[in-house]
Amino acid sequence: MLSGRRSSAVLSVISIFALSSFGSSASARELRVGKDAPSVAETVALAEAGDVVLLPKGTWRGNIVIDKKITLRGQGGVLDGGGKGTVLQVDAAGAIIEDLTVRGSGKDLAKNEACVLFTKDARAATIRRVRVEDCAFGIYIDRAQKAKILDNRVVGTLEGHRSNRGNGIHLFNARYLLVKGNHVTGGRDGIYVSVTEDSLIENNKVSDSRYCVHYMFAYRNKLIGNTCLRNSEGYALMQSRNIVVKNNVALDNEGRGLLFRDATLCTIVGNRMERNGEGMFFYSSTENLIAHNIVRNNRVGVRVWAGSLRNEVRDNRFIANQTQIFFVGSKDIIWGKKGRGNYWSDYLGWDQDGDGLGDRPYRVGSFQTALVARFPAAALLMRSPALELISLLETRMPLLRTPTIVDRRPLMGKDKGSP
Fold it and tell me: Which of 70, 121, 164, 357 gives 20 to 30 Å between its CA and that of 376?
C-alpha cells in the first residue's frame, strides 16, 4: 500500500491530467460560417486548434488558407474560388476537410493552381467526401507526408487538349499517403504519382482521362483494386521500382491497359485487362514478376519491346486477343523456364503425360500461329502430316524463324492460371 503522502501526490497528478484532458475536449467549438463570422476566412481566423468550422448551404468565397488543426465540414456549402488562384490551401498538420464542394480555381498549371492544395506543413491532414470540380488541378499533395485522400469525387475539365489540363489527384514528393475510394473523371491524368514512396492507391475509379494512374520515379508503392475505364491509357509505371500492382481492372481503354517502361522489381499479379488497344506493354523493364493476370479480348494481348529481360512471366491467361503478342527484339525471349508457363487460347499442342502443361512450346509468330490467325478454319488441319512436317522444319532450321516469345511450358485445359 502507498503511504498517505505518496497516495495524495499520485491522486493530485491524476486529477490534474483528467482536468487538463476534459478542458481540452470541452474547449473544442463548432463555428458556423455566416453566424459566428460573415465569411469563411473570418470564421477560420476565429477558430482554434480542435475546432470545427461548419459551411452551411450556399456559395461561399474561396481562396482560403487553413493554418491550424481544425476541421472544415460542409453542410451543403460550396467553396468557390471564382476562377482565381487556389481555392483551399491546407498548411496545418492533422487538419480535416470533409463533406463539401470545392470549385473554380485559376487555370495556371505552372503555378499549380488547384481546388485543394496540401503543402508540406499538412502532415497527416485528411480530405474526404469532397466534390472537386472546374479546377486546373483537383487535389494537389505537395510534400505532405501521411496525408489521406478518401472517397472524393474529382471532375476534371474536358476542354482543350488533354496535355494542357491539370491532373485530378496529383501526388508530389511525399511518403506514406493513402488514396482510397476516389472517383476521378476528365482532366489530364486521373492520379499522377511523382517522386512518391511507400504509399497506397486502393479502390479508386478513373475514367475519361489521359493516363488512369501514372507513376514517375516512384518507389515501394502499392496499387490495389482500382478500376480504369475509357481512358487514353490505363496504369503506367515509368522509371519506377518495387511497385505492387494487384487485383486492378482496365477496361475499354484506347491504348494500353497496363504499361511499364523502365520499371524494375515490380510485382504485377491478379489484374484483368480487357477490351483495350493493348492489354500490357513492356518496354526496357527487367526483373519483374508478372503472374495470374487475365488478358482478354484486346487488339494486342501484350506488346514486348527490346530490353525487357529477366522477367518472370507465368500463370497468366491470354484469351481471344486479336494478336496475342507483338514482339520487337533481336533474339527470342523465353517464358516458362521454371515449371509453369501461361495459358494461350490459340495453343494447338497436346499434353500426353497429363501434367497440365503442353508438351510442345508455344511459339508466338510460328507458321501454325500465323496460319490460324489469318485462316481460323485451318485449325482443323493442325494435326495433318504436312503441317506437322512444316512445324518440325521450323524448329530445326533457325533461318526460317524470326525472334519472338517462346513459352516452353504452356498451360493446358482447365489449368489456366486463374488469379
Answer: 357
